[in-house]
Design brief:
Blueprint: H1 8-18, H2 21-27, E1 37-39, E2 44-48, H3 49-55, H4 61-65, E3 71-75, E4 81-85, E5 94-97, E6 100-101, E7 123-127, H5 130-133, E8 142-146, E9 157-167, E10 172-182, E11 186-197, E12 213-227, E13 230-245, E14 253-272, E15 275-293, E16 296-316, E17 319-336, H6 358-367, E18 379-394, E19 403-418, E20 440-454, E21 459-470, H7 474-478, E22 480-483, E23 488-491, E24 499-511, E25 515-534, E26 551-576, E27 579-594, E28 607-615, E29 619-628, E30 644-657, E31 660-669, E32 693-701
Parallel strand pairs: 5-8, 23-26
Antiparallel strand pairs: 1-2, 2-7, 3-4, 5-6, 7-8, 9-10, 9-32, 10-11, 11-12, 12-13, 13-14, 14-15, 15-16, 16-17, 17-18, 18-19, 19-20, 20-21, 21-24, 22-23, 24-25, 25-26, 26-27, 27-28, 28-29, 29-30, 30-31, 31-32
Amino acid sequence: MSFIFKKPPLFITLLSLCSCPAIANEILPTVEVEATNNAQNGQVQSNASELLQQQASGNTLGDYLQEHASVESASYGPAVGRPVVRGMSGYRVKILQNDTEMNDLSAMSQDHAVGVMPKASERIELLKGPASIVYGASAGGTVRLVNESHHQFPEKGFSGQVDAEVGSNNDLQSLGGKAVATSDQFTVGISANRIQTEDYTDGHGNLVKDSDVLTEQASLVAGWRYKPSAQVIVSYETLDKDYGIPNQTSRATRIDMERDIYSLHWSETELFEQLDKLSFDLSYSDYLHNETEGGRKDGLFGQKALQALVSADYYLDDWLGKLQLSYRTNELKVCHEHGACDSFSTASRSGIDTNVGASLENYLSSTGLPYSHGHPMPNTETQTWMLGANAEKPLLGWGEEVYLSIGAHIEARALQADSSNIQETWLMPSRVDANYYQDETEFAGSISAGVKHPLTQNIQSEVNLSYLERLPSVDELYWNGFHHATDSYVFGNRDLKKERSVNLDWDLALEGEQSDWHFSTYGYYFWDYIYQDSAYDQNGKPLIDPFHLSDVWQTMQTDAVFAGGSVRNDWQVMQWKQRPVIWTNQFEASLAQKNNGDSLPRTAPYSYLTKLGYQAMNWSANISLKHVFEANKLAEYESATDSYTWLSAYADWKVKSRYGNWRVWLKGENLLDSYAQNHLSFLKDTAPLMGRSVRAGIRWQY
């Protein structure tokens, strides 16, 4: 197999600095690193990335999180897996690196990968309610990938790690490492990771073509603590991802994405009594990916974002909270032209008014839809101001452990559309829609409140109620064209209204001597819910676009209801060598319907998980069996997805020595070799889940 590095000097240099045993033996003391699972409360679930990696069936963010209750992965082959949280997908789940919004295009289309490598983070948080709303109005909450060294000084001294992993089925080869050196005043850190897989086979033994993935990541961090309570940290991170799309096209469809982030963080503590911490973050992100079909460059997507953020952690009377003000400017460019998307371009103009939109109008007259074969949307630029706040206080007279949380978020967005990139005959003419490319400024406001209340000494209840407003994204408004990677023609909707919802979440935890229960339920009502669905004619036949003979998808709005929940039990079934054996059982159910009772497309099916786990002093093991029921809550014309059973096993062994700490692990996924399809995936037929695979790895920390 090929093991070619796109950026060999950076990766090899960083990895060699991370992996020198002579240096570790002579000058690096052993630093004990222990991954912990820290579920703080119903609003914040925090997990060490290392723990999530142990149970993940793949390498995407959705893979890392899908063992959480009411979290699924919207897979699009092994490279793409955006998390779907409580039925919410796309723009309804905000993804952050530390406190900065991800500048990728994963929410824009199902084939776009999330622009992060979860393995490279230190922990991953799931936020909802007031804890989430400070970052924005996202019905599914916020996923926050945290690297503490980018925002605060590590402990004084030297630390680092090197890890490697190999796997069967898709010929997995993974290698990574990091090193951090910190003094009283300065810190410097480096990291590098590389993951490569080839095409995999499904549970029927069939090779899934164009399912290979190559991901490379590296970062540099440097900081200066110019006084005990103040610090400045700068960082640079780069990510390259080259992957195939296992769709129905005969020629190989591939995406090659690059993302670079430059950031500066300043913070100071101990300013005065009411202000615990004041920080300022400035980040610039440059994202680019091209899409090829048979080696021909047919699509190009570019997005540049600059974000400035001021955050204050405060304590006022009995209130403890966060106030955050941010400004973000975002520039998005898209190209679609067969074999001619090496760069972004400006279309020529004849100056003849009758040419404007001539081809588009012809298709509008003959089919009733404004089909276009030019660039699918105008270049857009947005400037967004956001003010978010949350706070928590004990409710006096209710008991010391009863807390009230509140949060609010205000957003103002100015949107400018520049249609100079679109070929003249495919423009939307003013005689059809005079306001199509018009600049506009829109506002959205959201509020949230939560109460955490112990019903008894062993029973904890938490309720969160939110009213959220979301502005339509630029692609939901403007997209009008074919997308090669998804093999579909997508119509946006320039007349979309602001999406509004009322969200209710309730969590109930019961703690016993040998058995713990956790019940979670949610109910969301949407006005003008935005979604995509296949388009059909009056006879129920799917519409086919005239250029590529592919399915047509339309962006629509409807009032909708989402509801669901989960129940989980962790039972200490026995003690072995003074350590508990834990038997976990979890059931999940959800529904998503229009207000007329019809199901929305791609509703997650019911699932049941049973798991047996044991953790000793220097080793741990678990085995789990998950049954996903048949997906039969179907939208009109949507096909059902068969049930499947997924068997997983994991074991590791830890050794501590003067030369560092070692961990060796072995894991198996889909050990029954079941044929499985993900009902949430647009490619469930051409990209079924992977068949049986076995992975082994080793990690050395010092």
